[in-house]
Amino acid sequence: MQSLADTFRKAGKTIGFVPTMGFLHAGHVSLMQRARQECDVVVASIFVNPTQFGPNEDFDRYPRDEAGDRKTCEAAGIDVLFMPTVAEMYPEKPSVFVNVEGISDILEGAVRPGHFRGVATVVSKLFHLVKPHKAFFGQKDYQQCAVIKRMVKGLDMDVEVVALPTVRERDGLAMSSRNSYLSADERQTAAAIYRALSAAEQLAKTGTRQPEALKNKIQAVVREVKGIEIDYLEIADPESLVPLASEQDSMVLLIAVRIGRARLIDNLVIS
Ligand code: AMP
Question: Ligand 1 mean position to 10 CA, how many Å?
Answer without folding.
Answer: 30
